[in-house]
Amino acid sequence: MNNELAATKTLISELVNIDKTSNAEVMIAPAFTNLLEASKVLKDFEIEVIAQNMHFAENGAYTGEISATMLKSVGITTVILGHSERREYFNEDDVLLKQKVDTALESSMRIIFCFGEKLEDRKLGNHFTIVENQIKNALFHLQDVSWSSLVLAYEPVWAIGTGETASPEQAQEMHAFIRGLVDSKYGASVSDNVSILYGGSVKPENAKEIFSNPDVDGGLIGGAALNAESFMGIVNAFNY
After folding, report:
1. Hey, how many other C-beta atoms are within 10 angstroms of the C-beta on 73?
2. Any catalytic annotation for residue 55?
3. How far is CA 19 from CA 39, 45, 46, 75, 221, in A?
4. Which of 112-126, 140-154, 196-210 has the highest mean pLDDT?
């Protein structure tokens, strides 16, 4: 919940004026109120505008919510689901997120699906179990073909906005576990091709080391994306 319209337009203007030297796919997720204007501004640039969230229903008595149909009507075809803050502050659980995933796929939306453990889970050694359950409960009912519309995003909640960052080794360990989990259900053709992003206090200073891991395919960037130079520094740290 950052940046009203003027600030969003300023940030976008700054982003497009910084040279992109990597071949990374770049997406930004402004607030709902700024999606249409952001899409207009970026129509001639290789930066996709995506949504932070959506509801599972197409329409109805859900005051304040936004549907996939509404998003698509303003040109948005990718949505973030299951972000750690949605889980933490708005009580989104696996059952609800499964509904959202199904609706998004039925609406031909691409999904960035987020999951991850809290600090107490990591300390107790339950982090693999937590992540496995979050993925299985919301995604493992899907057919193979649906995975071409999925991007996974691992968020160690203990490393978001805290200044703490999972070490590159910890990130790779979890990402390898996630890819292996997908492989065990869907096989290598799916697991090798699904992108797995890391989201946990990525900065220009640590991005290259994190992205160099074989199972880390990019980043889900939070606070560092509110500064154009910082965000593009992370983008340009990616070499695929």
Report:
1. 10
2. no
3. 20, 12, 12, 25, 19
4. 140-154
Q: Helical H runs in the chain? A: 5-16, 35-41, 68-73, 84-89, 94-106, 119-123, 127-139, 168-186, 188-191, 204-211, 228-235
* C-beta separation of 96 from 66 below 8 A: no
Q: Which tokens hold the place of 173?
A: 């360990």
- Quote the radius of gyration of the chain (alpha carbons, Å): 17
SS3 for 92-113 is CCHHHHHHHHHHHHHCCCEEEE
Catalytic residue among 83, 92, 117, 175: 83
> Interior CA angle at 225 toward 203 and 82, to 5°?
100
Active site residue 117: no
Percentage of residues in the chain having pLDDT higher than 70:
98
Residues facing 195 on adjacent strands:
151
Q: How many CB atoms lie within 10 A of CB 43?
A: 9
* pTM of the complete model: 0.96
Cα gap 160→116, rounded to integer Å: 11
Which residue is catalytic, options 55, 117, 127, 155? 155
Each residue of 141-172: pLDDT tens digit? 999 999 999 999 999 998 876 666 678 999 99
Contact 113/153 with Cβ under 8 angstroms? yes
Give tens-digit pLDDT for 181-192: 999 999 999 999
Compute the 3-state secondary structure of the chain and give helix, strand, coil in percent, each to the nearest 5: 50, 10, 40
- 113 sits in the region (left: phi over 0; alpha: psi -120 to 50; else beta) called beta
